[in-house]
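Quick one, tokens below. Sequence please?
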């Protein structure tokens, strides 16, 4: 009797087969050629390979129950584990806590300040208010979630930016911590051990290497000149001002993620960007592209699968072709984007049957950007029969904190706010993701051409309910549209959602 592994294609770095051989894929296709319906499943990029196999083991019986022979694409990531560990570490750092305190104070004050008024100190939250708000994280609540935001917010003035820097410069705890970091780096580089510290502050930090280098240089310059204090941290103060300016600009353009999450995102962007998972996120997405790139001497899983699929279709009469459905969770949606593009390219090159098209596509909380979805799905609408997208309502998405002690919103909020890029390749904040309801409801904010195309396609009001393309959980709109998932990771666990997926596959 076949085990779960007989239904899986395992790949590693660059999409190269790892744990699966080309012979095993060939054997898989000897089974597939007799199956009228096949479902290709792409798990999310959050989990290590063992968890990916566990997901396959869990979903296998349900797919077989609706006569869809599954093929699970399993790849190694472990992204969420790394992000959770690093964010937890950052949340405990003295530097982060001090920056969070002051940037939050100035952000809230700017949002409270009446248009044209002066004197930002008068409307800053007190230390007691700040403590009470930040304590809400212990109850998995978002600080300043009820803070009213005016429709018109004025930009940060040069004076306000300077006031923030002066407050930071007078924070002795911050100064001592930065000096400890600078001195520690200098001692470590020299191979010193057991060097006495002038401060008891922790020198352990996950700040980006370039930021640590700046702190190190500032401290060294100050020590050589006989100075201490503000002169040792000039670049850190400058960066804090930039974080405040960007935070307020996002509110001014209605691209914020709420008071607290936006402040956290901009501090992380300015001081910790190298250690919050950006490179891992890029690697995950690259693997979903690389696996379909035919490179001599490398057995790439996607390439061998498509070659065998092309051979199966060529050897089979068109009226007997299998119906192949696609299901992807989170970055599995990115995988499906790249699969559609790879098939279209092969059809254009004459190496894949031109008449072939997939059956149904189901995306569960997809992490693909609007612009990539536009280039893959909308551009190749003739390559599949239908599509359905499951996600959470924005209210529920906002409550799904990935690391409540520091980041109180969902993984997709985190990806949109910090990790993704625009179509130009530039990293940006608040990049629209297909699996997030917020980007369909604020059409006056997200109004670029590719954004309007995706909004119109996904929320097409001319479609009757049974073939509607979206379902925002909690949803009870009928067979194939129901979902009770309240966390990003729930969509491949929630029985109601899985029943809907099977209903679509039927």
């Amino acid at each position: 009797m076949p085990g779960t592994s007989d239904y899986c294609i395992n790949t590693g770095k660059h999409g190269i087969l790892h744990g699966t051989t080309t012979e095993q894929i060939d054997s898989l296709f000897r089974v597939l050629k007799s199956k009228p319906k096949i479902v290709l499943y792409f798990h999310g990029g959050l989990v290590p390979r063992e968890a990916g196999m566990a997901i396959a083991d869990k979903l296998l019986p349900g797919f077989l129950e609706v006569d869809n022979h599954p093929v699970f694409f399993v790849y190694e990531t472990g992204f969420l584990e790394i992000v959770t560990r690093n964010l937890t570490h950052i949340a405990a750092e003295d530097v982060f806590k001090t920056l969070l305190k002051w940037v939050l104070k100035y952000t809230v004050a700017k949002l409270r300040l009446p248009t044209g008024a002066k004197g930002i100190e008068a409307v800053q939250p007190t230390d007691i208010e700040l403590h009470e708000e930040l304590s809400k994280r212990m109850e998995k609540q978002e600080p300043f979630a009820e803070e009213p935001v005016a429709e018109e917010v004025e930009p940060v003035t040069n004076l306000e930016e300077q006031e923030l820097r002066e407050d930071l410069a007078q924070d002795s705890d911050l100064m001592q911590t930065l000096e400890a970091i600078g001195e520690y780096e200098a001692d470590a580089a020299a191979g010193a051990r057991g060097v006495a510290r002038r401060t008891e502050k922790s020198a352990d930090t996950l700040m980006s290497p370039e930021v640590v280098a700046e702190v190190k240089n500032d401290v060294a310059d100050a020590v050589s000149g006989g100075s201490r204090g503000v002169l040792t941290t000039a670049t850190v103060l400058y960066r804090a001002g930039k974080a405040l300016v960007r935070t307020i600009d996002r509110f001014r353009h209605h691209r914020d993620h709420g008071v607290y999450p936006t402040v956290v995102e901009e501090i992380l962007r300015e001081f910790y960007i190298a250690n919050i998972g950006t490179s891992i996120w890029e690697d995950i997405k690259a693997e979903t592209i690389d696996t379909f790139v035919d490179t001599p001497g490398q057995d790439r899983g996607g390439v061998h699968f498509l070659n065998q699929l092309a051979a199966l279709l060529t050897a089979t009469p068109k009226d007997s072709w299998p119906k192949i459905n696609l299901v992807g969770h989170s970055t599995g949606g990115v995988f499906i984007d790249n699969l559609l593009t790879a098939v279209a390219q092969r059809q254009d090159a004459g190496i894949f049957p031109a008449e072939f098209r997939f059956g149904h596509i189901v995306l569960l909380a997809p992490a693909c950007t609007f612009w990539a979805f536009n280039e893959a799905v909308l551009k190749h609408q003739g390559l599949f029969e239908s599509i359905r997208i499951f996600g959470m309502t924005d209210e529920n998405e906002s409550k799904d904190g990935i690391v409540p002690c520091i980041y109180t919103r969902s993984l997709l909020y985190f990806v949109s706010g910090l990790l993704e890029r625009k179509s130009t390749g530039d990293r940006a904040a608040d990049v629209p993701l297909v699996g997030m309801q917020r980007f369909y409801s604020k059409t006056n904010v997200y109004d670029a051409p590719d954004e309007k195309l995706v909004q119109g396609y996904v929320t097409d009001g001319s479609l009757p309910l049974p073939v509607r393309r979206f379902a925002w959980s909690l949803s009870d709109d009928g067979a194939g549209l129901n979902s009770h998932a309240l966390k990003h990771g729930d969509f491949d666990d929630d029985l109601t959602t899985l029943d809907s997926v099977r209903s679509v596959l039927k």
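The beta strands are 8-11, 37-42, 69-75, 323-329, 358-364, 384-392, 470-473, 475-476, 482-483. Confidence is low (pLDDT under 50) at residues 185-202.
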